[in-house]
Amino acid sequence: MLRNRLFAVAVALPALLLAAGGCSQPSSAEPTAGSPPSPDGSVQRVTAATPTYKTLSLQTTQPGRVEAFETAPLYPKIEGYVDRVLVDIGDAVSQGQELIEIAVPELHDDLAQREALVAQARAEVKQAQSAMQAARAAVKTANARISQATAGVARAEAEHDRWSAEHERIKELSDSGSVTPKLLDETLHQFKSAAAARDEATAGVESASAGREEAEAAVLKAEADVAAAKANLQVAQADVKRATTMVAYTKIKSPFDGVVTQRNVDTGHYVQPPNGGAAVPLVVVARTDKVRIFVDVPEIEAPWVDGGEEADRITVRIQSLQGQLFEGQVTRTSWALSASNRSLRTEIDIDNAEGRLRPGMYATATILLEEKSNVPVLPITAVLREGDQAFCNCVVEDQIERKPIQLGLRAGGEVEVIEGLNADDVVVMVRGDTLQPGQAVGVIEPQE
Predict the structure, then answer these.
(1) Mean pLDDT over all residues of the chain?
(2) Backbone φ/ψ region at 298: left (φ over 0), alpha (ψ -120 to 50), beta
């Protein structure tokens, strides 16, 4: 044991002598003459430098997943038997392309019947319009008869007045004995005949007026019949439209350009509309000309995420594509945090015209949350805190001077200083919490 201790002393002694010789050499880190010593009489060496001006970037890197921009599971609207399946998984399809055809013959028969009813309703409209034209013609005829009867009344009145005057004249002559009583009787007969003709003409006017009223009533009825026939036509046309829509459901078409990702039906299968959430779609079509990348940003970084006009830039790395990078920006966020993991759902839309990105791929997204150029920066190790106030220790004439500072953006191990420092201030970079204001120190330049 004693031999081991002697060996250790012999090994350590040259090192101590070398260290003592090194301390005797002059150093720029020694304080100038007149600096007050530390309480224990020693001068502590500190690593200090002026603030660095640089671009400070706050980023977050989170896992994500690639999903189709739109996904459409297609179900049958009607029940029937699958007549043809025109696509398979992996097929590229275009908007409106027929994918599956369902055989429902009764729908086609119903459509033919509805179309026949439309033709019948059109004929009834034409028939009603013809009846209305006839009724209007009858009104014109009745008006003509009224005009004719009115003219007859005028002639009868004139004839009545003439024979009335003639009868009075002959009567005066008969009373004076100038004419025979027979002539008086003849004029009286003519007078009565004219009166009867007048009454007959007046009755003709009344009859013609009644005929006109009847014709006008027929016109109103004909107009009502036309309106009813047109309404029946509209009903028949609506039935045809509905039947046409139902027939269209026999052909399932793609809602957009995309790729068939699922096919769960074969020719001859009986299909019907889904009744619950467990129903299986006939086919699933995914739109892939553009994809969405979903990223969940933790709560602590969520307030920094910006979308809209000032959207944050994003770099997406796809692991399965040998780490290939895709550039984009935040397209939208959920704004509210998820209750399950306290994260912010963030979506990035990326064009995928070449089809390199596939739904389900794993992605790693780096979001540039904030970036400031040419700002004074200190390492976090240089910042001291007392409550809510931040400080740093500066070396002024080989003594410690504590300065309050206001901090800004923090990224990694560095933080922006908004106020409190000048460009030429020499700041203690590490272990500042061991120093006291007024303490004498020697400055050691930080190693690059």
Answers:
(1) 83
(2) beta
| pLDDT over 70 (residue 25) | no
What are the beta bridge partners of residue 374?
none
- 231, 236, 240, 246: CA torsion to nearest 10: 100
- Check if the beta carbon of residue 314 is closer than 8 Å to that of residue 297: no
Sign of CA dihedral 342, 327, 286, 72: positive
Name the one residue in this structure whose structure tokens are 């994500």.
64
In the predicted model, is pLDDT for residue 356 greater than 80? yes
What is the dihedral angle through the alpha carbons of 253, 254, 255, 261, rounded to the nearest 10 degrees?
Answer: 140
Half-sphere exposure of 200 (CA within 13 A, CB side): 11
Stronger pLDDT, 411 or 255, i.e. the higher one = 255
Residue 216 and residue 139 in contact, taking contact as beta carbons nearer than 8 Å:
yes
Rounded to 5°, angle at Cα 416 from 414 and 422: 115
- The closest of 98, 104, 103, 90 to 74, measured between CA atoms, is 98
Question: Strands 384-386, 389-396: parallel, antiparallel or unpaired by DSSP?
Answer: antiparallel
User: How far apart are the C-alpha atoms of 18 and 21, rounded to whole Å?
Assistant: 5
Running DSSP on this structure, what letter comes out for residue 340? T
Which residues, at least 6 apart from 19, have a Cβ–Cβ distance to it below 8 Å? none
d(CA 317, CA 327): 9
Going along 177-305, which residue ranges are E strands? 251-253, 258-263, 270-271, 283-298
Q: Is the pLDDT of residue 38 over 70?
A: no
CA 368 – CA 348 distance, rounded (Å): 13
Whole-number pLDDT of residue 177: 67
Q: Token pair 């908004």 is at which residue? A: 418
Q: Express each pLDDT in 205-221 by its tens digit.
A: 777 777 777 777 888 88
Strand partners, 376: 53
Closest among 267, 347, 339, 295 to 103, alpha carbons compared: 267
Q: Are 250 and 98 in contact (CB under 8 A)?
A: no
Of 280 and 169, which is predicted with more confidence?
A: 280
| % of the chain exceeding 90 in pLDDT | 55
Give, for 74, the enclosing helix (H) or strand (E): strand 52-74
Q: 246: Cβ–Cβ under 8 A, 6 or more apart, which residues?
A: 78, 107, 110, 111
Q: Which of 205, 210, 222 is nearest to 126 (CA)?
A: 222
pLDDT for 132 beyond 70: yes
Structure tokens at 314: 């994003």
Task: Name which of 168, 251, 255, 156 is nearest 198 in CA terms.
Answer: 156
H or E element, residue 351: strand 343-351
CA–chain centroid gap for 441, Å, is 65
